[in-house]
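Researcher: I'm preparing a figure for a lab meeting and need a structural model of a single chain. I don't have an experimental structure, so a prediction will have to do for now. The sequence is pasted below. Please return the structure as tokens so I can convert it later.
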Amino acid sequence: AFVEPDEEKFQRSESIKKMRVLAVGSISNIFTAVLCLIIFIFLIIPSNGLIVEKSTIEEIPPRTRIEMVNNIIISLDAISATMANYVFTENFYNLAELVGNESTVNLTTDKGIFTLDSEKISGLTLVYVPKFRYNVEIMGTNLFLVLAGILFWAYFFNLNVGLVNLLPIAPFDGGKMVMELISMFSPNETILKRITYAILLVGIIIILINALPLVNMALDYISGIDYSSFLPI
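Model: Understood. Here is the structure written out token by token.
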């Protein structure tokens, strides 16, 4: 959301009124994000089990649903798992944590019960497939799957745009709001600039610290790419 007030009228206004105007855009973004999230959550229903995406085990082909491991029901947080699938296109799961040190594994699937050596389960690539409260298909595509995707990304971007715009850094509305707030208590321009620069510095440091995990993830992803598959050697 973007708000363009009358600049002359805006500058003549009181600080509290300026802050209200500056907050409108971010509040609109956050409100839209919450609304999209509520509708998104309403569409998703729990779906126990994982679907085999890839398999090197003859008895358990792809598209098999694994429901239990050693009599332990596989139950995931439907909302979190669905969101993870939208954010990470290769959001795979493994069964190692459910197997432990057992030498054999009993897998209960929609095709029967299988007993396998624990080493074999590494040949299974598993994904979570969400279920939806409604199922209306057109040309084999569930319309509510498409709607859930639109709602998720609308929630994701609106929330992030709204929160980033509230950061107390000068280019954003949050930074302008901080300057107006400080000016209410200290009209001295020198003090105002010093406090503003200090807040700006702290804000940048916090952003950099929070960005480090993302940088590490990106580097790990880049280092794991097999360039030989598309570059001549």
